[in-house]
Amino acid sequence: MRRALAILLLFASPTGASEKIRALVESALAQDGIGGLSLGIIEGGELVDTAAFGYADIDGKVLATPEHVYRIGSITKQFTGLALLKMAHDGTVGLTDPVAKYVPEINEVRGRYQNAPPITLLQLATMTSGLAREPEDLATFLVGPASNWLDVVVGALPKVQYDFPPDTRYQYSNIGYAILGASLERASGRGYMDFVRNEILEPLGMKDSDFVPRAHFEARLATGYEIEDDAIETETSAWEHLGRGYKVPNGALYSTIADLARFIAFQLGHGPDSVLPKAALADNFSRVNSATGDLSSGYGIGFRLLRRGELVVYGHTGSVAGYRAAAFFDRSSDRGVVILRNVTGGKLDVGELALTILESIPP
What is the pTM of this model? Predict the structure, then answer.
C-alpha cells in the first residue's frame, strides 16, 4: 500500500466537535493523510462531544467512528499505577515495599550500584528505579500471548541493567512497569489482568477495554497502519494482536473513546469510590516524584504532568505498532481530551494535538 492511495481516502465527514476543533484535527491529519482518528471531549465527568475522521480500514473504506477500538499503548501504565494505589490503600502492599519482597528475581538485574538500597514499588511506578528502558535482546521478549507475560518478564530480568542508582533521576522504563505488574500479581495472589478487569475496568463500566481483542468488540477494531519511508504496512500491528511478550502492564490495553472518557471522569474526581476513594486519588495528584529542570513536566504514580503556561495537565500518551493514543485532563477546569489514532510513523503528534485541543476549549 502506498501513501498516495491513502491520501485520496482521507477525511470522511466528521461528526460532532466544534468547528475550531475540527479544523485543528483536519490540519493535523493532513500532515500525512493516512488512516483515521477518533476524538472525545470530557467536561464535568461526562463525554460531551465526539468526532471521527478518516478511515478505520483504508482498503475496506470503513469510516472511523467514535465506537472503534484502538490499542492505547502506554496509557495502560495509568491502570497499573492505579492498581498499585488501590492495593496500597487496601493494605495489600506498601508503596515503599522492596520489589524483591514479591519478585526476588529482581536480584538478577545487572549492574546494581554499590551501597544502593533495594528498589521499591514506588520507584518503579514513578520511573525513578534507575532501570534501563528495555531489556537487551529486546526482540526475544516481545513475543508470546498475553497469558504468558509474567514468565517473559522474569526471563528478561538477567538482560536488564541499572543505568542509574535508584531514586537519583527520572528514566522512563517499560521493563520497570512490567516488573511492577509482576509484583502486584504476586502480592495479591490474583492475575494482574484479572485484577485490573475486576477492580478497575468493570466498576468504571469500561466494557470495550481489555488486554486482548474480545469477540464482542473485535469487529470494531481499527486496522493499525505503520508508515515507513513512503510505504504503509499492517503486518506488524496485525501480528502483535497475538501478543506482545512482556509488554502487558506497560502497554497491552485496547479501548474506545467512551471507555477512556469514563476513566478520565474517574481521574477528574467523579468516582466511583469503590475503585479508589476521591481523597486518595487527589492525594496522588498532589505529588510529582520527578520533574525536568525547568519544571515543565514530571512523573507521578502512573501519570505524566505537563505545564503549558498556566495550564497544568495530567495523563499519558501511548504508542504501539499501528496505534497512537493520548488522554489528558485538567483537574482545575474538570475537562479532558482523548485521541485515538490507527497510524504510527506519521507526522501527526497525537499528544501535542490533544494538548492544543484542551487549550482551545473555551472557559
Answer: 0.94
